[in-house]
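Appendix B. Raw example, untouched.
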Amino acid sequence: MPGPPSRPAPRRQGDPLLRSESVAIPPAPDHRALYAQAWLLAGDETYGVREAVSQLVRGLRNQGVTCSALCLSDGEFYAKAGDIFDSVICLGTPRRGQPVGSLISKALVTSRSLLWLQRDAKTLRLALTATAAGVLNVIWPDLLPLAATAAHESRVTLAWHVMNVVGSYRFDLNRKLFAHFLRHCRARIFASSTTTQRQLGELLPSQLLPCAADERRFQATKTTDDRRRLLAQLGLRPELSTIGLVARLDFNKGQDLLIDAIALVPETVQALIVGGPGDLRYADKLARQIVRKGLESRVRLTGLTPNPEMFYPAIDLAVNLRRDVEPFGLSVVEAMLCAKPVVAADEGGPSDIIGTNDVGWLIEQPLTVSRVVAALDSALVARNRWSEMGAIGRTLALERYSAGAVAKNYLAQLSKMSDDGPALDIAGPKHGDQRLK
């Protein structure tokens, strides 16, 4: 693969969009398409998606790829994007609405987005021209029509990263809509797990590309003194085994299942629940549940934290108890990077990650308290192997899910796109687009 071209000077965050009406991309070497990439973002992405994008971009930039962020509006991710991307442009385009609710409400929101599509696509097209990107990356399904239209008109490659579950409309209307727009541009779909890949189905053929985690932040605990010190600060006992669950407090994350399970396993086990309230009522319910079960001395809620990695030295065994299907499972990889064995559901991304790799235990879904207790009991029987399993897990996570590993995987898959055929079976005729070699 040719080396990367020299990187242009970065544009300042929030620079106004260039007003040129031209949509032509100046001539450049074919490999330019690989080494200049843009990301269409909402601007308000929260932890999971924000981390996955940030780490992939970090890995790409380390490979010499120039990465630009095109944010619809300002928000939490937009505020931090200047430290992550080479350049940042705020499009000033509202997100026309995410389809939720009944089929009629979804149809109304989708129709409104389509009415504004050409105007919004023109704004995005101008931004793409300004960045000279040869690849446009998009994550959110509701932004796919916009991204596909702009990519087609700008003659650049579209990469859709499916990091979350794509819901099902009646008559499969949403997938048919996605397929319609993807037919008109050179596109490739990347699914974060075999579960998301199956949900996309034959109508939207995809390739596997796991999410990347930050191997710099999430490190193995260096000494037992670190563990003892942190547990003492948290008011937990160092002689007990600590089960950790790292996620925002939300019913679907299953913190209540862990609390119920702690009441049923031996008293040599305690729990640390790391994360702030995604749902205030659920957070209050958890606090009352701890008191009702008499677990005040064995369960701790840390509250909101921007640095979940600082709590991993106190955790001996990590759990992911998401009730619905986990599309990937970033917290599973982060725990493995911290050299912790993991217990998680046997469906979704964690099943891909843990599999038969001797790095943890899988629980049959649907998750119930009895099944969680059984899994914890199995893990406790193998307590003397936790350090060994953690070491295996960290090695595996570095090989497969570090920023550098995922970025190289992504570039390798893009570079295989043939000059002679479409990236997807659903693609239409070629339109003189930027070719990837």
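End of appendix B.
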